[in-house]
Amino acid sequence: MSTIVAKSSILLVLNFMLVFPSVLATKYPFEESKPCKRLVLYYHDTLFNGTDATNATSATVANMTGLDREHKFGMLVVFNDPLTKDHHLLSPAVGRAQGFYFYDMKDDYTAWFAYTLVFNSSEHKGTLNIMGADLMYEKTRDLSVVGGTGDFFMARGICTFQTDTFQGDYYFRLKMDIKLYECY
């Protein structure tokens, strides 16, 4: 008799463990929240072309492989690019984007970014860390905001890229619409 009670108790506990998480998951339906902080910035990348070291803000540190020259597969670029509030390259910088990107597909034009936005202005102090895939053929692309410091301590959110201009292989400008959903 006690083994039947023990087996029944175990089955009851197992059923409770399986049902309870699904009850919690349905208790709070997904609601789209508004960001606690939003920034729109422009990221200016001027790739060193072998002749203009003074104005270059990025450089290739690993050349593309011989597997696919059209999409620059394997090329690694390190950057320290200015951030502005508008699309003008010569506007006052509100910070710097520091990190790297590499071209990661042989059959399409895409890159993977990992970088930090470094702010040191009267408006913002601190950093935001951003990483993710840039599927350049899409009009807009979302990358993850994975942390921050200072005014952006432990921030989480989304950075939406939109190519604002592309001038050959040596200059591009991205509009970054940064929406933070966890602000402390």
TrEMBL record:
The keyword Transport does not apply. Its main location: secreted. Gene3D superfamilies: Allene oxide cyclase-like. Keywords: Apoplast, Secreted, Signal. Dirigent proteins impart stereoselectivity on the phenoxy radical-coupling reaction, yielding optically active lignans from two molecules of coniferyl alcohol in the biosynthesis of lignans, flavonolignans, and alkaloids and thus plays a central role in plant secondary metabolism. Belongs to the plant dirigent protein family. Homodimer. This is Dirigent protein.
